[in-house]
C-alpha cells in the first residue's frame, strides 16, 4: 500500500493535467453555429435503425441509449454498425480498463474457455483462490467475497456489516443496524444498494427499500460526527471519489473524520471503489491517496477487464462474523472470469506496490530487482534500483514523450519474466 503523501492537496484532484488539456481543447472547439451544422449528428444506416427498433420492441425500456449501435472494439476505439470510429473515453462506464479486446486478455479467455467456465461454489477452483490471494496481497484486506456486479458487492457489504454488528453484541442487546450514506452517492440498483443511493429518482419509485439509511451532505464533517452513533450505526458507505453523482472527490479531513467517528462508535467504514478503484486515480486504490483504510471495500467494473465480476474485500475481524451459508452466489468467482481478472490485474506476482507521482515512480518487488534491471538494459532500456535493491526506480527526462513511455512500458513488460527465472 502506498504511504500517506502529505504533499497532496486536501481535496484529491486526480488529473489536473487532463483537465487543463481538455479546457484548452474545448475552448478551441467553440465554433460558429454555421460550422456546427456541418458536424451535426450523422445519419443512421438501416442496419443501425433495425437494431434500435428491435431494442424498442423486445427490451424493457430502462436505458436512455444514444442512437449508436456499437459492433466492435479494439484498444481505445470502438466502431459502430456503419463502420464509424469512436475514441472511447467512456470505456463501458469505467470498465474496459485495458481497452477493447486486449490480446493478452483474449488469449487467457480463449485458453480458460476451452478448459473450464463454471463449477459453482460447491467446489474449489484455483483461479478463484488465486485471485482472492492477489487482491488480499495488494490491499488492506484479509479476505474476499466474490460477486457478479458492483451492486451485489455492496449488498454483500450490507450483510457483512449487519452480521458483524450482531456478532459483536451480548445476548439480549439490539445490534446496530443503520447505515449512513451521502448526497450524490451511487451504490447500485438492487434494493439494499438503492436504499444507499441518494438520487430520489432511482429510489422513491421502489420504496419501501431497506430502512434505516440516513443521508448526509458529502463532506459535512460536523453532521457525520453527530450522526454516527454507537449502538445504532452499523456502517458508513462512502465513495472516496463519487462517480455517477458528478465526480466529487472527498477531502482527506472528511474521510479521516469518518474513520475516527466509526472507530469511536463501533461502526464499520465501507469504501465503495466500484468506479474509482483499481488504478483509475493513478493509485491502485483511490483511498491510498488519502492514507485512510476502510474495514470493507467494494470493487467491480474493471476487475476482469469487462467480464462481469464484483468483490467485497474485508478484514479478518469482519469476515469472522460470517458463517457457512450466510451468503452465496451461483455464478460469482467462476474460473473463467477469475482467470481473466488475474490477467487484467497484471501478470507479475512479484510486484508488491507501485509508488510515486508523475515521472518519479518506484515499483517495489518481492525479490531483488537486479535481474529485471539487467534484462531491461540488454533490451535497450536503462532503469535503476532503489531501496534495498528490491525497488525499480523510473526517473526519465521530463521531456519524454508518451510514445517513448509506451515503448518503455512494453520493453519492461517483456523483461518481467527475468524475475521468475531468477527466483526459481
Ligand atoms: C460507485 C458505484 N457503486 C456501485 C455501482 C453499481 O455497479 P453495477 O452497475 O455493477 O451493479 C456503480 C455503478 O456505476 C458505481 O459507480
From TrEMBL:
CDD domains: OAT_like. Its EC number is 2.6.1.44. Belongs to the class-III pyridoxal-phosphate-dependent aminotransferase family. It comes from Asparagus officinalis (Garden asparagus). Keywords: Aminotransferase, Pyridoxal phosphate, Transferase. It catalyses: glyoxylate + L-alanine = glycine + pyruvate. GO terms for molecular function: alanine-glyoxylate transaminase activity; identical protein binding; pyridoxal phosphate binding. Gene3D superfamilies: Aspartate Aminotransferase, domain 1, Type I PLP-dependent aspartate aminotransferase-like (Major domain). This is alanine--glyoxylate transaminase.
Amino acid at each position: 500500500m502506498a504511504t500517506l503523501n502529505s504533499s497532496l492537496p486536501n481535496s484529491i484532484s486526480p488529473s489536473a493535467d487532463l483537465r487543463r488539456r481538455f479546457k484548452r481543447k474545448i475552448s478551441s472547439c467553440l465554433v460558429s453555429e454555421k460550422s456546427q451544422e456541418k458536424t451535426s449528428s450523422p445519419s443512421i444506416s438501416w442496419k443501425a435503425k433495425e437494431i434500435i427498433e428491435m431494442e424498442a420492441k423486445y427490451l424493457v425500456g430502462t436505458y436512455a441509449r444514444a442512437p449508436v449501435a456499437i459492433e466492435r472494439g479494439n484498444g481505445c476505439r470502438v466502431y459502430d454498425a456503419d463502420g464509424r470510429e469512436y475514441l472511447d473515453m467512456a470505456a463501458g462506464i469505467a470498465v474496459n480498463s485495458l481497452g477493447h479486446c486486449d490480446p493478452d486478455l483474449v488469449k487467457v479467455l480463449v485458453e480458460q474457455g476451452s478448459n473450464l467456465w463454471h463449477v459453482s461454489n460447491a467446489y474449489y477452483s484455483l483461479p478463484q483462490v488465486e485471485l482472492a490471494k492477489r487482491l488480499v496481497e495488494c490491499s488492506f484486506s484479509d479476505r474476499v467475497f466474490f460477486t457478479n456486479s458492483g451492486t451485489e458487492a455492496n449488498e454483500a457489504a450490507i450483510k457483512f456489516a449487519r452480521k458483524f454488528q450482531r456478532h459483536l453484541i451480548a445476548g439480549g442487546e439490539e445490534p446496530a443496524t443503520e447505515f449512513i450514506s451521502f448526497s450524490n452517492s451511487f451504490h447500485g440498483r438492487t434494493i439494499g444498494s438503492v436504499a444507499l443511493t441518494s438520487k430520489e429518482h432511482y429510489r422513491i419509485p421502489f420504496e419501501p427499500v431497506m430502512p434505516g439509511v440516513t443521508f448526509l451532505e458529502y463532506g459535512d464533517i460536523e453532521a457525520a460526527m453527530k450522526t454516527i452513533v454507537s449502538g445504532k450505526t452499523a456502517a458508513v458507505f462512502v465513495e472516496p471519489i463519487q462517480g455517477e453523482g458528478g465526480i466529487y472527490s472527498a477531502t482527506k479531513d472528511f474521510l479521516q473524520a469518518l474513520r475516527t467517528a466509526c472507530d469511536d462508535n463501533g461502526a464499520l467504514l465501507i469504501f465503495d471503489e466500484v468506479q474509482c478503484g483499481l488504478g483509475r486515480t493513478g493509485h491502485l486504490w483511490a483511498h491510498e491517496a488519502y492514507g485512510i483504510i476502510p474495514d470493507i471495500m467494494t470493487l467491480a467494473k474493471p476487475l476482469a477487464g469487462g467480464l462481469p465480476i464484483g468483490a467485497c474485500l474485508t478484514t479478518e475481524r469482519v469476515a469472522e462474523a460470517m458463517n457457512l451459508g450466510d451468503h452465496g452466489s451461483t455464478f460469482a468467482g467462476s474460473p473463467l472470469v477469475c482467470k481473466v481478472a488475474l490477467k487484467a490485474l497484471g501478470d507479475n506476482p512479484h510486484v508488491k506496490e507501485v509508488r510515486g507521482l508523475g515521472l518519479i515512480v518506484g515499483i517495489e518487488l518481492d525479490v531483488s530487482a537486479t535481474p529485471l534491471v539487467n534484462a531491461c538494459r540488454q533490451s535497450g532500456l536503462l532503469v535503476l534500483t532503489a531501496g534495498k535493491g528490491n525497488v525499480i526506480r523510473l526517473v526519465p527526462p521530463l521531456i519524454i514523450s508518451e510514445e517513448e513511455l509506451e515503448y518503455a512500458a512494453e520493453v519492461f513488460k517483456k523483461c518481467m519474466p527475468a524475475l521468475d527465472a531468477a527466483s526459481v
